[in-house]
Amino acid sequence: xxxxxPFTRLVAALPATVPFVAPEALERRNxxxxxxxxxxxxxxxxxxxxxxxxxxxxxxxxxxxxxxxxYMLREALARYYHIKMEQIVVGSGIDDLLGLVVRAYLxxxxxxxxxxxxxxxFNYHVIGYGASLxxxxxxxDQNDLPALAEAAARVGARLVYLANPDNPSGTWxxxxxxxxxxxxxxxxCLLLLDEAYSDFAPAQAxxxxxxxxPRVLRLRTFSKAFGMAGARIGYAMGDVQTxxxxxxxxxxxGVNLIAQVGALAALEDSDYLQQVxxxxxxxxxxxxxxxxxxxxxxxxSAANFVSIDVGGPERARALVEALAERDxxxxxxxxxxxxxCIRVTVGTTEERAAFAIVLREVWPSVAAASLSHx
Length: 374
Description:
By secondary structure, the protein is α/β, with parallel strands linked by helices. Helices cover 41% and strands 13% of the residues.
């Protein structure tokens, strides 16, 4: 019997964890292709034509490493937001950046605060680096800002994670709400403000960019409105000292060349971005009307998805499974009170029409079966 190098005590003690079950995994399990991919909040509209053209051309240089400084993209982002390049770090998506923040701010045993059922990758990093989580339930389907602030003070949190607009609810708080919340946090606590869905949100939901405030770090991405989820590229904005700390620990060649080129071209194509946002706004309304026609409320959303209230977690789970049997991929939130919902990404006009047909066909039997078990 051969010897085996031991894992660290931390890793050995961690349970096996899969933050997301991918649609590809469902396809392998079912032996069929998903006809409607509406569960991961990807953009159904894809990247802008200019971004696609730039990425195709960049394939000719794919033998090269990407620029470890992401200089041109950071320069363009700095102009876009009227801030300094030194206040921006680029990573391979927000998931990567969340890991950098946790490594930079949390010692083993430190505490972080998040909402119960919020984006699980933050939790994954916190636990994976040996810190612990305080989870605060949603209130009225929104992040409970007073309760989050109280929890941060009570446990001495070093980090508080807040998505605005929120995933998985789609709800949002105003910029004034966010600023008041920031003022209630402990002085040595960093607010990690995930704004992945900010491009879809009303203006009053987005605080003014104040990257000189060391109490807040803002995360944004090219995965959602810009349609580049598979390219894995996002960025964080903060004060110079905060951003410079990430250079000590980030994977300097972690952002690929094609993603850098595509993101730069996408950022410059504002007309396409506006078209996508307008179509998503239209699609959210269509989903709300569809749900209403079937006797189900929906949660008003400022993201590129809608959470439809189907009446309870068992019914939501049954509906997700029934849709999967029809090769439609959607998800349900994982914790109460939002686990009474299914969450559906806004698809193209054709995808929305196809989803409406399938939902109308499967919903009556799911609803009837759940009633018979009561």
